Amino acid sequence: MVELQQSFQVAALQTVSTTSVKNNIQQAAELISEAVEKGAQLLVLPEYFCLMGKNDHDKVDIGEPLDNGPIQQFLADQAQRHGVWIVGGTVPLVTGESSRIYNTTLVFDPQGRRVARYDKIHLFGFKKGTEAYDESVSIRPGENAPQSFDAPCGKVGLSICYDLRFPELYRALGNVNLILVPAAFTYTTGSAHWEMLLRARAVENQCYVLGAAQGGKHENGRRTWGHSMLIDPWGEVLACLPEGPGVVSGAINQTRLSEVRTALPALQHRVL
């Protein structure tokens, strides 16, 4: 049983990941240390923190079996070393298919134990002019939604990037105190919708939302929106980092959650 804390510090780590797994892990380690120094107790890395490849299939080449591989070992070691909760953005896990991986969020507790897994179910597809993406080429959709875990801030719900556009996933999580969204929103879609969607999920679920994003121009030519942020249950943006590597941090406060839910008991008024 995880003991609930009145105020619990969380952090989103924003990266501009490269085509080198080694360099990306080094960048992640430095940001983890920075966040821990600032008091963070739960840290979230962005989607694809370990690799932004030159093509869709680069991520398939570094796919790992569950609980076995250098990326997963890094995350477990960092959690244990610093005594914090680490949500590993996304990790490519093998599926049994030679051409596709699962895009998976793994959660490690302060002892370095894996306590949750969520495989992304909604796969991004976008085409506008010369800009086009199709995640289904190299990613197999997950089948294990919804997923959550208990932390000192209460129940925490898991989602990944494009999931943000599908509110039914968040309703299926039930009442949560915090929603996590590791992401790599494109500059085009992020500038239009990222903050809007994060704030909507916070308001409609009356919980905190923490988005950890890729944010900048990548070696592969892709540009991501960034703007990692923490949002409170009333939809207020508490902290935001527009672009570049860095840390966004703040507190999950039980009093604030109670105030919002008591003043406007929408969760109790739900009919469907």
Automatic annotation (TrEMBL):
<dbReference type="Pfam" id="PF00795">
    <property type="entry name" value="CN_hydrolase"/>
</dbReference>
<feature type="domain" description="CN hydrolase">
    <location>
        <begin position="8"/>
        <end position="254"/>
    </location>
</feature>
<keyword id="KW-0808">Transferase</keyword>
<keyword id="KW-0378">Hydrolase</keyword>
<protein>
    <submittedName>
        <fullName>Acyltransferase</fullName>
    </submittedName>
</protein>
<dbReference type="InterPro" id="IPR003010">
    <property type="entry name" value="C-N_Hydrolase"/>
</dbReference>
<keyword id="KW-0012">Acyltransferase</keyword>
<dbReference type="InterPro" id="IPR036526">
    <property type="entry name" value="C-N_Hydrolase_sf"/>
</dbReference>
<dbReference type="InterPro" id="IPR045254">
    <property type="entry name" value="Nit1/2_C-N_Hydrolase"/>
</dbReference>
<dbReference type="GO" id="GO:0016746">
    <property type="term" value="F:acyltransferase activity"/>
</dbReference>
